[in-house]
Write a structure and sequence with these properties.
The structure is a single chain. This protein has 243 residues and is of the alpha+beta class. Helices cover 33% and strands 23% of the residues. The protein has 2 domains: 157 residues, Jelly Rolls (Sandwich), CATH 2.60.120.10; 75 residues, Orthogonal Bundle (Arc Repressor Mutant, subunit A). It is built from 7 helices and 12 strands. It is globular, with a radius of gyration of 19 Å.
Length: 243
Amino acid sequence: MDIKKHSHTGNEAGIPALPARCKACGGECVKHVDFMMGLPPEKMDILLQHSERLTLPKGAYLFHEGEHCDSVYVLHKGRVKLCAYDQNGQERIAGIFVKYETIWEGVLVPDSRYSASAVALTTVECCKLARQDIEAALHEPEVALRLLALLSKKLHDANRRNLVKGIADPKKRIAGLLLYRFRRQNGDTVTMQLEEMAGSLALRPETVSRKLKELERDGYVKKTGQSSIRILSPEKLMELVPY
């Protein structure tokens, strides 16, 4: 699928030193990104030297499994899943990324390749940051510390996801996933399709559907749309999850 690239003009936010391709929003798009928040313009300029603003339709790939890792992606709109397939052809979802999150998978490892594919679940807008600019930015102590903090947080999140996947009881495993997603967002509604939950937890979609109905019947959650689940009581859900 085609990916649209935007040219950039203007600087309504008054942030100097941004390259022309990043001036359309005046740097607003990166103000909420963890490792860029509050960076001086000259340091942000290092990170954005060769950046591209992309628009992808639903179903488009940011990158494919097996390709060389050459970029970091910062999401500004939409949702992206990181997925791979096992020997039986079953999809396994390693993560779902949303607005303001950053997809780093393997880019700082020399000569590495992507271990999974990144697919747009909705229309997506993102910035693609070149690997060489990230490496150049690491020479700046302030940027390096921010990146270290962000990657440490990502490792913590990955460990949390693995703990959830290790829960034997499917109902408790789903409760753990809902809590994990709830804690990473604002608001009480988790947006996640049935197939996404199944792929994230290595469960069959019909099992997820049945256990969600049990959680709703017991007053833990309430489905408010095709892929929207409102958390009625995080405290009650926590009682189901062993950690």
